[in-house]
Amino acid sequence: MSIAGLVQGIATLAWIGLGAFIVLAVVRAARNTPMKKTGSLILIFGVVAVMLTTVSSGLVFIQPEERGVVISAFAPKGYREEPLQPGLRWILPFAETVVRYPISKQTYTMSIAANEGDIYGDDSITARTLDGQEIFVDASVIYAVDPARVVQVHIQWQDRYPQDLVRAQSRGIIRDAVSQFRVDELVSTERVQFTEMMRSAMEKKLADNGLILEDFVLRNITFSPEYAASVEQKQIAEQQAQQAKFVVETKRQEAEQVRQTAEGAADAVIIKAKGDAEARVIQAKAEAEALALISSVLKENPDLLMYQYINKLAPTIQTMLLPNNSPFLFPLPTLSQQ
User: Fold this and answer.
1) How far is CA 296 from CA 16, 283, 304, 305, 308, in A?
2) 156 Cβ partners below 8 Å, 6+ apart?
3) What are the CB-based long-range contacts (under 8 Å, 24+) for 262-266?
4) Tens-of-pLDDT digits for all 338 residues of the chain?
5) Which of 19, 46, 159, 225 is the most buried (most CB within 10 A)?
């Protein structure tokens, strides 16, 4: 409990005690047993009660999360131009009063859900996009009263600033921003720019009226049932197109694989044929070179052919028949010996 509250409590007790003492004095007087020095005691209790009440009316304790606007009967403008700062403060009893304003962060939420917003029921913002589509926007504005401009807020808005300033300005700004974008941009490529545009405009409006914008939260965007159905159909059509494209691509890859396999087999046949041809050429060249060498050797050694012929005869041959017109007879003494 603060000192101001304690003094006010004591003052209240003093007034209760004064009332009880007066009642007791009246009752004793009615019974012909008056109390001694009744008037003096009543006066003393009365003075103490008045003094405590006066002191308690002049003492004001301002919490750290608030500021106080002093409404004064003696100030030229009817109020003090500087707000009361946190702590125990003194004002003129019975001539000045204090209106307290919170300076901590506050949140005002507008939502399509009945229990989420500051107003029960659907409090979302209905707006139309650049291409004429109707959407519903959920948003939250996080703000605070500027401690140095509390007096301005009191003069301009009093305690109506959440509804009449924050709510009204944010709804108008959101509608203006939505009208500058197509519906598909709001949920894809331009969502960040859309949010930043609203935040910047809201910050300026609140600052002009003594409030500080802490954050602007774009909570959700809901489409009309007709547009949601068209988007769903479009997505289904796109998925089907993607599936068809995938099938075509798969078939193309399969055809390409078959073609490459056929090309590989054809290349293998060609390579094999080339290899066989080259092998035959090499073999023919080798045979020609061998025949040329043999021919050259036979020219120099004519008896070599006969020698080779004899070597090829079977070892069991004892006799050899030659044509009757052959001019040769080959004695085979070696064969006979064998």
Assistant:
1) 155, 20, 12, 12, 16
2) 209, 210
3) none
4) 567 778 778 878 878 877 877 887 777 777 777 666 667 777 887 888 888 888 888 888 899 999 999 999 888 889 999 999 998 888 888 888 999 999 999 999 999 888 888 888 888 999 999 988 888 999 999 999 999 999 999 999 999 999 999 999 999 999 999 999 988 888 788 888 999 999 999 999 999 999 999 999 999 888 877 776 666 666 666 777 887 788 888 888 888 888 888 888 888 888 888 888 888 888 888 878 877 877 777 777 777 767 766 777 656 665 555 555 655 555 544 444 43
5) 46
* CA distance between the termini of the chain: 147
Residues 103 and 268: their CA atoms lie apart, in Å, by 86
Report the amino acid identity of residue 206: L
pTM above 0.85, yes or no: no
Domain 106-223, CATH class in plain words: alpha beta
Helices (H), the chain: 3-30, 38-58, 150-156, 168-178, 183-186, 191-208, 225-300, 304-311, 333-337
Give the torsion through C-alpha atoms of 11, 16, 21, 27, to 10 deg.
160
Please tell me whether residue 137 adopts helix, strand or coil conformation. strand
Nearest to 141, CA basis, from 211, 194, 67, 66: 211
